Amino acid sequence: MRMGLALSSLTAESLSTLSPEELKKLLPQLTKRVQELEELVGIISRGKYMWESTFDAITIPVHIVRRDYTVERANTSAAAVSNASIKTYSGKKCYEVFASRKTPCPGCPLQTSLAEQKVFTQSLEEAVHDREFEVTAYPYQSENGTHDSAIVSYRDITEEKRLQGEVVQQEKMAAIGILAGGVAHEINNPLGGILALTQLLIRELNDDDNMKPDLEEVEKAAKRCKQIVADLLDFSRVSKEGDKREIKLDALVGKVMPFISGEMKALNVRLKLESDENIPSVFGHPDRLQQVFLNLMTNACHAMTSGGDLSIRFGKNKLGGARIQIADTGSGIAKKDLLRIFDPFFTTKAPGKGTGLGLSISYRIIREHGGEIDVTSTEGKGTVFTLSFPPLQDV
User: Which of 29, 245, 327, 372 could anchor a disulfide with 311, C-beta 3.0 to 4.6 Å?
Assistant: First the structure.
């Protein structure tokens, strides 16, 4: 029998030549080695489980991606955003599964990050599933020692961008409101004189006088200017808190209907009312809110020149306050125009058909009430304005 047998010096071939007695002597060493291997396997398994659990516990979407955009691994948050399973990602391009695109997402920092071998962050130029994302790529060394992969994370900045836009919009509205109020007051007096003198001349001229049609055009233009000035003053007006009271939105909309019923009939527009039970009340200015509803409902009618449905839906928002949606099945608003829809003097109507202040004034009134006004639109299908108000107890 061979002496001094050590497990570490044996190969599979030499192990097969050992006698039963020699194998018996090696058994304790084999048993110990198997136990050590089992412990190592356990440590590796626990490490793998902890890594996968940690990876999946990250609340933002994360991919491990190769240079060619092939996904090596995706976490559950990424799968949730794209409404897919983690297995679906394996071997697929990240832009195919995550963004449902045929080409890489514009603004993706992956290639820049790998080329410069440093962390790179950039916002995607286009929304993914109606969400805006800021993407960060972290280069890392893969198992084969190459630097052709990166950990890519996606931070949802949709709400952040919306709030930034709200701040900018409010600051812009406040500045324009101050300017508009000053300009309107300065213009109002001379404009009133022009209109009064024009009307006096019209009354004094004979019907067959050649100047009368020209003066009537001047009168019409002066009246339009006066309406613009009135809108400017309304835009710059700050409401008084003492004028507010508890309001039922459905009752307030009912008061608006007589003002647009004739136009609805002429344009063959059908009214559809939808309401949840126990619609919350709103604390506000009835006249100011009535102005908002009249403006939005009139705009909706004008968007349906060939007829359609004007839908008004009452309900609750996520905070428990009142919500009203005013929807039409009209021509819709172009995506490029949606970003400017609440800007003063911006209008998509033909020249002479609108001042471009209606939606700006509506926006300001809703903000005065602590509410929010949002718009979604699809060209050729229609537009939906959603107005949300805070619960009464929060006012």
Answer: 327
